[in-house]
Amino acid sequence: MLTVVPRPVSVRAPAKVNLHLAVGDLRPDGYHELTTVFHALSLVDDVSVVAAETLSVSVYGDDAGIVPTDHTNLAWKAAELVAAHAGRRPAVAISIDKGIPVAGGMAGGSADAAATVVALDALWNLGLSREKIMDFAAQLGSDVPFSVAGGTAVGTGRGEKLLPVLSRNSFHWVLALAKGGLSTPAVYRELDRLRERGTPPRLGAPDELMQALASGDPARVGPLLGNDLQAAALSLEPGLRRTLRAGTEAGAIAGIVSGSGPTCAFLCASADHAVEVGAELSGAGVCRTVRVASGPVPGARVRGDGTRPDGRHPDRTATDRTSTDRDRGHH
Ligand SMILES: C[C@@](CO)(OP(=O)(O)O)[C@H](O)COP(=O)(O)OP(=O)(O)OC[C@H]1O[C@@H](n2ccc(N)nc2=O)[C@H](O)[C@@H]1O
Ligand SMILES: Nc1ncnc2c1ncn2[C@@H]1O[C@H](COP(=O)(O)OP(=O)(O)O)[C@@H](O)[C@H]1O
């Protein structure tokens, strides 16, 4: 008798750092109007989906214990959304190998949602258009379209409207992962509170940063990094000031809180320099752990042996694989 073994589809999706995060006023729908420059980093989650009797989510990796495995997991929500569109039951087992810190301001949940949409499109041979995939992504969260797109991009609206940014070369980063996480809505609320009590400075337009990115020179990019949420994250987690100071004392060109935090991201001059700064920072005892990464990297893409269940080639190059696998390692 012939036994058909279901074949999994595996998708890799990147973390992000906001090189520029200008937060406008609170909109009536509860979101803030943003102008942000997203940058995808070689710190990744791998998500695989395989046909099963019922929908399930399993999570592996250092932070696995604090990630929900029920209907509140963004990958679960993504599966329900795509299945409803395809008119089928979401009968898949989703397994997530987490390399992205949880609640760290690096869009880990968004990466998993993006990866699940891309994986189910391949597993079920849906042939979804890029536009439809982006539409699902925007329904799942403000950061999810960027997790699909990857690279470097300007996000407007609540972050979901994207335009690619020209950036030359790779940039090298050290990430200081914190002991706990910070809730994104709580950080936005704290910024609103700070703005009610005073007038914390607001970032302008990212024009100069775009020019610096096009030049590919990290020494030009460093002083132009900025994040309006940083004041709010520091107000909730004052210890992050020490982390930021330690990063620059360790020789980084510049450091910022990543998105809503508490991860801090430090820009370095080269891959070797990032390894040196990472070693110094890990000895300073100001964070849970340190990672090195580079960017920009591609968005959520099918991995594997070169073929998808429909026999077509995934949109992925050998270069992507070498850089992401190398950078994935712990420091
Ligand atoms: C701050 C940022 C910066 O890229 O990322 P993280 O640092 O959390 O990863 C994003 O704006 C987070 O995006 P994401 O995590 O997808 O947010 P969503 O699920 O859409 O929204 C969660 C909550 O964040 C707040 N929110 C989000 C986006 C936005 N433009 N304005 C907001 O005020 C709202 O309170 C919303 O209810
Ligand atoms: N697949 C997922 N991975 C991580 N967290 C998830 C996931 N799905 C839902 N969550 C929930 O979303 C919260 C925010 O997670 P995450 O996306 O990692 O952080 P951030 O919004 O700071 O980028 C977590 O605390 C967790 O409860």
UniProtKB/TrEMBL annotation:
It is an enzyme of class 2 (transferase). The active site is at K16, D143. GO terms for molecular function: 4-(cytidine 5'-diphospho)-2-C-methyl-D-erythritol kinase activity. It comes from the Bacteria. Keywords: ATP-binding, Isoprene biosynthesis, Kinase, Nucleotide-binding, Transferase. NCBIfam families: ispE (TIGR00154), PRK03188.1 (NF002870). This is 4-diphosphocytidyl-2-C-methyl-D-erythritol kinase. The lineage of its organism: Bacteria, Bacillati, Actinomycetota, Actinomycetes, Mycobacteriales.
